[in-house]
């Protein structure tokens, strides 16, 4: 099957149900007999959420001692009260429906449990699903909102995916909570802030957030960020005696999953960012402005919506995202978030077949694998070279591929120039029934 056909059809369904019981033999080659499993699946909610998550729609997969799938159920509610198995050792897994992504709008839970089946015995097995991603909340106080007209905030966890979490004034004054998947051994977050005051001053700097203390976690007690952590970052402007902004203070806290106690995160430089540009009123200027629209410009299209199978009637040029970088392009990372599981699975196939990871974040600059991919999909495009100052990323090339995938598909773009300036933006495409 061609890749294009695979993309249009979507993900392969969960392995079909089977009524067979695998044969188990004893040391003499005789049938070792059977026992049964009684399954219970639950969610261990982080203390910070105090929520109740239903598990009835969680899929369940049963593996044998060799890691091969013995049986699977589409939902917990389909699992019988007892299920007969040959004597032996097994592992049971359950998780939130779908595939976990780097950035999500909801928490993702997963759990496993080992199981030994003995002859003529019903064995209880409890699968406790724990939150795999962390919640990150950004808050602006009233003084911040009264002072700044525009701002851009990025959080980089240093992971191999090279995706930075971004917040800006375009996300509103109370941005939604983001659920973020940390890779292993992430001990610090690099925070970049760039804002323009209503008086025209620019405040910009780079700071690092680390854990000040690790009260409790699901399984261990260390300095790394991980699933179940609830991180809250507050921004407050710093004003001089003359009333002009001289910087910004960051207060960051984290609530760990086993406790309701909230503790502070260490923020280098005491969380104060020095101002850049000319500060009115004679205040001392700081280290220089962040990237204005003249340094990095993203001309993003408005949200795009069209009906199921309606791509042929949509002008693909309306999806063009024009990018200009005065200092030259270093990187353009494009990642895709979708409410359609078929979309997520199909995009995952692109990584398997071409090494282009639009889920984790695909580099566009100089990436010939991207060129090959879209040529094979009969949607040719070119990619910029490092140092180019202009490029148009044709998101419209995805229209034909999306036409049967109903849902909201969000394209996240992170652009970095040769001097390390970064700007982010999103494009949303919605396919309706």
Q: Would you count the extended β strands for me?
A: 27
Q: Helical element count?
A: 5
pLDDT averaged over residues: 78
List unreliable stretches of 5+ residues.
1-23, 213-220, 269-292
Helix content: under 10%
How many domains make up the 3D coordinates? 3
Q: Tell the overall outline.
A: globular
Helix/strand structural class: mainly beta
Radius of gyration: 25 Å
* Ends apart, CA distance between termini: 27 Å
- Largest β-sheet summary: 12 strands, mixed
- Strand composition percent: 35-45%
Features:
433 residues; mainly beta; Immunoglobulin-like; 3 domains; 12-stranded mixed β-sheet; 7-stranded mixed β-sheet; 5 helices; 27 strands
List the helices and strands and how they pair.
Elements lengths: L2 H7 L24 E11 L15 E5 L4 E5 L9 E4 L1 E8 L7 E2 L4 E9 L4 E10 L2 E7 L1 H6 E9 L8 E4 L9 E3 L7 E10 L4 E10 L18 E10 L5 E11 L6 E6 L4 E2 L1 E2 L19 E4 L4 E4 L12 E6 L3 E10 L2 H14 L7 E2 L4 H9 L13 E5 L4 H4 L4 E11 L4 E11 L1
Parallel strand pairs: 1-8, 9-15, 21-27
Antiparallel strand pairs: 1-4, 2-3, 2-5, 5-7, 6-12, 7-8, 9-12, 10-11, 10-13, 13-14, 14-17, 14-19, 15-16, 16-17, 16-18, 20-22, 22-25, 23-24, 23-26, 26-27
Helix pairs in contact: 1-3
Can you offer a commentary on this structure?
The chain is built from five helices and 27 strands. It is mostly beta strands and 433 residues long. It has three domains: 113 residues, Immunoglobulin-like; 149 residues, no CATH class; 137 residues. A hairpin with a 4-residue loop joins strand 7 and strand 8. Helix 1 runs antiparallel to helix 3.
